[in-house]
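Checklist before submission:
- one chain only
- standard amino acids only
- sequence pasted in full

Submission:
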Amino acid sequence: MDFHYETQPVPNPVAYYLHHSPWWFHRFETLSNHFIELLVPFFLFLGRRACIIHGVLQILFQAVLIISGNLSFLNWLTMVPSLACFDDATLGFLFPSGPGSLKDRVLQMQRDIRGARPKPRFGSVVRRAANVSLGVLLAWLSVPVVLNLLSSRQVMNTHFNSLHIVNTYGAFGSITKERAEVILQGTASSNASAPDTVWEDYEFKCKPGDPSRRPCLISPYHYRLDWLMWFAAFQTYEHNDWIIHLAGKLLASDAEALSLLAHNPFAGRPPPRWVRGEHYRYKFSRPGGRHAAEGKWWVRKRIGAYFPPLSLEELRPYFRDRGWPLPGPL
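Returned file contents:
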């Protein structure tokens, strides 16, 4: 939690302030996370009141995650199963009451059948036996999953048998301690290596770029390209050749590619002659500090080149080798 808010895929404005919370608050977050994810789910088996508490805690937990970052629709969907924890009596205050109302008729039916226990039939016995058998089977198949969970070499998003009945799931196996960003730049200069070449930044719709731009707030919407750029920054362009494909689209001023961006520095002008990728390390500015006083949310430092300057002519064989359509006038 000391690093999560700063290094998550697409931070929002609240993440900026949560990142600067006291150390003890981050320890409390960690303890609460373990309690809600590892212990609270067992409340489902402890009766009606415990089940309601489970639903309340899980929904509040997901709400906190929604407020603290742009994690697309993941947390909104996670709330849905918890709604089943609230029975009619719990949700009754949401519906009008009175003689003849739907709520009144439902309550009357519940009073009529309360305490009634129908005699067990053969079908119900078979169904119960099948449920118990399935539960035992799942428990047995889950043994390697639990061992993997407790292992220091935990494997994320995998299966442990050919039927794929039990699996491991997870968005992130670990939290990075530093944030890297790939900044795409273009120039109209004919000489990309000249020291006086002016490079202009492309801005994405949500991912960090201009240090002075406020972090976005888009949940539950999802900007997939911004998300992929976050992953690409941890690797090289050789592992993410799609980013070279994007560079070719920018060199050709492709309208569909540019629609995915917030700012095209060459709008209303001829397309750039060269496009390059620069690698930066980003950190949140310190509230009250020099950079924050200048209106900057981020402080960035150049790491080096992510990919070298590329022109349309140079990308011709690269595109053809991969069977990609040649953008623009190639």
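Reviewer check: The chain has a mean pLDDT of 89.
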